[in-house]
Design goal:
Layout (H helix, E strand, L loop, with lengths): L8 E4 L2 E4 L8 H21 L17 H6 L8 E3 L2 E3 L4 E4 L2 E4 L5 H26 L2
Antiparallel strand pairs: 1-2, 3-4, 5-6
C-alpha cells in the first residue's frame, strides 16, 4: 500500500499519519494531494476487508502565527477520509502530545500543569489517609 502514496507518512502501531508541506499560496493543492492519498488508503483498506473510521481522524495545518493568519480556511478544500469531512482543528493530540496549529506549546503545558496540579493537591490527602491507617 505505502508504495502507492505520493506523500510522506508515519506508522505507529495502529496509528497512521500522512502529511504534506506547502507554502501558504499552495495549501489548496496540498489538500488535493492529501485527499488523493487518503482516497487510495480507503480503496486499499476496502479491498482487504478493513474498515476505516474516518470520524476518528483529524486534520490540522501547522505554521507560525503569521502563516496561519494568512490562510482563509473557507477558501481551501476540505480534507475528506472514508466518507467523512475532517474539520481543520486548532489543536490535536499526537501520540499523547497536544499540538497547536500555530506551533505553541500552551495546550500541552496547560494539560500537564492541570494534571500535575491535581496530583499535588491529592498528595496531602493521601499522606493523611496513610498515616491514619
Amino acid at each position: 500500500m505505502t508504495d502507492h502514496l505520493s506523500l510522506p507518512f508515519h506508522l505507529y502501531a495502529d496509528d497512521f499519519q500522512i502529511y504534506v508541506s506547502a507554502l501558504v499560496a499552495d495549501v489548496s493543492e496540498a489538500v488535493e494531494q492529501l485527499n488523493a492519498d487518503l482516497s487510495a488508503i480507503c480503496g486499499w483498506s476496502k479491498s482487504y476487508g478493513l474498515l476505516v473510521n474516518g470520524s476518528k481522524s483529524q486534520a490540522i495545518i501547522f505554521g507560525n502565527p503569521r502563516q496561519i493568519a494568512e490562510i482563509n480556511f473557507s477558501d481551501i478544500p476540505p480534507v475528506t477520509f472514508a466518507g467523512s469531512v475532517l474539520p481543520y482543528n486548532r489543536t490535536v493530540k499526537n501520540l499523547g502530545i497536544l499540538m497547536e496549529s500555530n506551533l505553541s506549546w500552551r495546550p500541552q503545558i496547560a494539560h500537564i500543569s492541570q494534571k500535575e496540579g491535581f496530583r499535588c493537591f491529592c498528595i496531602p490527602e493521601m499522606v493523611e489517609e496513610f498515616l491514619t491507617c
